[in-house]
Amino acid sequence: MDFLTLFAIYVVVVLTCIALVCKYSGQQQTPFGLLFDSVTKVIAPWTPLWLQSFTQRTLHMLFHQRNRMFIYLHILLEGAVYTEFTYEVFGYCRDMDTTLSSLSVPYVLLVVKSCFFYLCITREPGTVTKKRHSGQLQVYPYDKRMFQPGVCCPTCQLVKPARSKHCRVCNRCVQRFDHHCVWVNNCIGAQNTRYFLLYLLSVCAMAADMALLTVDMLLHAVVRSGILQARYIDDDGQQQQAGMLFVIQHLFLTFPRIVFMLGFLVFVFLLLAGYAMFHFYLALVNQTSNEWYKGRGNVCQHCHPSPDHLCGLPASDQSKRWFYSRGVLRNLGEIFFPLRPVQKKDH
């Protein structure tokens, strides 16, 4: 099995994993969870108790407690890509007379992305507090489908405002809760959704621009090398014209780090572009990820559905699905200029 075949298998596996993540995200039972549980049951009898305990504590810390591990991982991956781009691609592009203005775009986008990344991490998402509770109850009406009036959060001991949800990771109720993002170690809610959308957009633009510059560099390298006019001897001893597969394999052998960096950039762009499009679609229809999952019938594990009280919308009644939509422009305005809790004046 040659190198290109192995790489093709790798690409298929990665794309399959992306598709499965997109299909089963937000569901309680997923193939990943079932596979993990099955493997755990098989290896548990042969695994030392200290290792089982350490693994459970580590997984709990990573995915069920606030921590900065994924922030550090984000910075590490970003630093590795920019180091490789600066060390090799930048120099090759300068030799090909690529303008400095074009080469400076990825660094400008890095600064813009870092600003939105910082805002996602530090900005308060819209925590439901006792001080603001009475005003937050007035921000959104209850649709009486996904959000019922009078439901009290058992942890916060407050009546839950419409569109809010208690985040188990942050241990707080968040107004217009979307999801908890481990990459920014923060909830995405009413007050920071705009920063999250702009962060996704800037990361996609950054990855796309670096990928285009890298592809342009590789194409120039192929043209300059004259390999398109080259010939080689195949396994049967016949002389063959260098084709596309030969050129790709030549690039892998000549620029291995650059080609793998390009593959990573394309992978990141495809994954985050799809994720960004999904969130921009939700913004256009004034829905959150939490509401979208409930609308698909994925009932919250803390709820006990009954015929007259369901978290998810019945298939026969989809008219309430867009209950909070007020038109595209007003929906976008609500994202970038979020509704504020009503403040009572002191007399």
From TrEMBL:
Catalysis performed (reactions): L-cysteinyl-[protein] + hexadecanoyl-CoA = S-hexadecanoyl-L-cysteinyl-[protein] + CoA
Domain Palmitoyltransferase DHHC: from-to ranges: 152-294
Chain segments annotated as transmembrane: 6-26, 69-87, 99-121, 196-215, 258-284
Cellular location(s): Cell membrane; Endoplasmic reticulum membrane; Golgi apparatus membrane
Top-rank taxon: Eukaryota
A biological process from GO: protein targeting to membrane
Topology class, membrane: Multi-pass membrane protein
Family: Belongs to the DHHC palmitoyltransferase family.
Domain characteristics, as noted in the entry: The DHHC domain is required for palmitoyltransferase activity.
Name this protein carries in UniProt: Palmitoyltransferase
Lineage: Eukaryota, Metazoa, Chordata, Craniata, Vertebrata
Gene: ZDHC4
